[in-house]
Amino acid sequence: MNTKLVAIFLAVIMVMSILPFFFSGNTSQSDNGEAIDTSNAPGFGSVAGTHVDQSFDSISDGLDMTFSDVGTAQYIDLTRTQNTPLQFLIGNTSQLDAFYGSNVLRMYSAGSADGVSWIQFHDIYPQVVAFQYYLAPEAYNGYQLLSRGNNLYNVIGSPMILGEKGQVEDTVDVLSGMTVSCDKFDHILSYTGPSDEFQRVTEIDNGFADQYYVGIKLIDGTRYTRTSVYLNATDSTIGNLTSFAQNGTERGLDYETIFDGNITKVTITSNTSNFYALAAEPSW
């Protein structure tokens, strides 16, 4: 196995850490096997104001709630990665369960193009408020901001919003219709399926393409597919992809490549036993 390429892949899908945090909660079972007691925790209704109530099944749903200046975004359905090879590459997410005192089922993170701003959304169950917080003095556009310390704030709902105050307010502005959401990736995402349990999209400056999407999905419990979509892929990238495809079967990888105008789409399929070869396969 090419360990360097696996290391690159690991870096790409690494879950953003949130430290420090403080938590009090009490047992539901987390995906990582740790007990979380929510028996005495109040529900979302214990927090006044407007609650988030949005579809949250794909990276597109996340982008629909995100400020426009996004450079990269990522979505993971943790309910579908549990006890699969992909879970081991994503890593342990128990700190997120502890942060909320509840199980995080789906998560989304996005960062601005300049790398300064970020926002996260988390779908949790049970929908309880099993954590310590301080209520901001005033609601923002009807939404209560819950201070978690260190300039981190939550907004209650499906999904939960988490970020620094300015970015949380930017997100509320999108939800309130005061500003537009991020639509720069709409074209590339129209070539993807919404059902990939791992999804990532990135804008690239002077790189192998202008935009890049990668999605991974388990099919029938026996095969994985990795879908890569490129906007304005360079000639060098297309040449490399063509070369990889020509001898993919030697590595147990089945390639399907589609060219449509400025879009290049590559779908690679492999048996679950060959997952790490699929993960390590170069993308450009």
Structure overview:
This protein has 284 residues and is of the alpha+beta class. The chain has two domains: 3-175, no CATH class; 186-280, no CATH class. The chain contains nine helices and 16 strands. It has helices spanning 3-13, 59-63, 78-81, 85-90, 94-100, 165-175, 186-189, 235-246, 275-280, and strands spanning 28-29, 35-36, 52-53, 70-77, 103-112, 118-125, 134-135, 146-149, 152-155, 157-158, 160-164, 198-203, 211-219, 223-231, 254-260, 263-271. Strand 12 and strand 13 form a beta hairpin. The radius of gyration is 20 Å and the shape is globular. Mean pLDDT is 88; it is low at 1-33.
Shape descriptor reads globular
* Structural class by helix and strand composition: alpha+beta
Whole-number radius of gyration?
20 Å
Biggest sheet, in brief? 12 strands, antiparallel
Q: Uncertain segments of ≥5 residues (pLDDT<50)?
A: 1-33
**Helix content bin:** 10-25%
Number of helices: 9
Reading the helices and strands in chain order gives: HEEEHEHHHEEEEEEEHHEEEHEEH
| Overall mean pLDDT | 88
The termini sit apart by: 18 Å
What's the β-strand tally? 16
Using brief descriptors, characterize the structure shown.
single chain; alpha+beta; 284 residues; twelve-stranded antiparallel beta sheet; 23% helix; 2 domains; two-stranded antiparallel ribbon
